[in-house]
């Protein structure tokens, strides 16, 4: 957890950001986690994964826009993305994930909700699901409330809950009562002890607790983790309770534990790969670096080899 905190803090420093985004030496490491910068590259990766029997969620990277005009641009880009997926022969296997701060949450709930509704309504024309990603805890309450409001009118949406937050069990109950789909994750943001568990063992234990609840009572939950121990425990739970594997899916990030993704798919489970793309990759990339010291070692090695 200490390493994660240090990397997340360091990555926010302007000179670190300038180096990471400009250095060609960092690019090969970025490409491990990001499908490309264009919609064409993302759809190509998505189609390839879908042809190999994976489900896919495309994420057009971007968060915390600075103006309503930028938020409108993001909305337009997402509507375009949805239409482009709509042309894919694999449309039934591909959906999208969005961040509400990219749609204007910092500029006001009304603005973000209008854009979010427009995207979900467009996706509904193709029978496509739209997931609102969960961002830092300052946004949790508004995200949960907004998803619930939109879900009341448009059923092809749902959200993400983070096991590190104290409030998550309650949020999971709310989503179960609504019938809205939840992706459970551990949580990728730096959070204070007032709202989040600070030790990994508790975050992991809470993850298992919420995941079991969603598997038992939720609507097609997404169990999003690369944690093999947790996956093993949940597979045993599913078998023991006689839960139909068609009633949930595993989710993992593009470029992470491809071996585990293949194995789960070969075992007959539904597996969705979360595929980020776009030019605003830095915050997403920093979170992936912070999760695993070895990722930073890749960058260090490329610098040394220079
Ligand atoms: P953990 O961090 O304990 O890692 C378990 C193992 O997975 C590691 O030992 C390593 O083998 C592998 N691993 C994990 N991260 C790696 C990395 N970066 N590089 C290489 N190997 C790695 N978070 C959030 O706050 N809001 C959100 O909306 C989402 N959305 C989301 C979607 C999907 C599909 C996934 C899989 C994850 C997210 N997350 C997220 C991120 C999540 O909160 C969490 O930070 C990461 O999944 C890492 O946690 P793990 O559960 O994998 O466990």
What does this structure look like?
This protein is α/β, with parallel strands linked by helices and 306 residues long. It has 13 helices and 8 strands. It has helices spanning 2-11, 14-22, 27-33, 39-51, 68-86, 109-124, 140-153, 168-178, 200-217, 228-241, 258-266, 282-291, 293-305; strands at 55-60, 94-98, 130-132, 157-162, 181-185, 222-224, 249-253, 271-277. The longest helix is centred in the first third of the chain and has 19 residues, at 68-86. It is globular. The model has no long low-confidence stretch (mean pLDDT 95). The structure holds dihydroflavine-adenine dinucleotide.
What features would you highlight for this structure?
eight-stranded parallel barrel, 306 residues, alpha/beta, binds dihydroflavine-adenine dinucleotide
The percentage helix is: 40-55%
Strand numbers in spatial order across the main sheet: 1-2-3-4-5-6-7-8
Largest β-sheet summary = 8 strands, parallel, barrel
Order of helices and strands: HHHHEHEHEHEHEHEHEHEHH
Q: Which strand-content bin applies to the residues?
A: 5-15%
Distance between the termini: 31 Å
Mean pLDDT, as a whole number?
Answer: 95
How many individual helices? 13
Query: What would you call the shape?
Result: globular
| Ligand names | dihydroflavine-adenine dinucleotide
Total beta strands: 8
How would you classify the helix and strand content by structural class? alpha/beta
Give the low-pLDDT segments. Answer: none
Radius of gyration: 19 Å
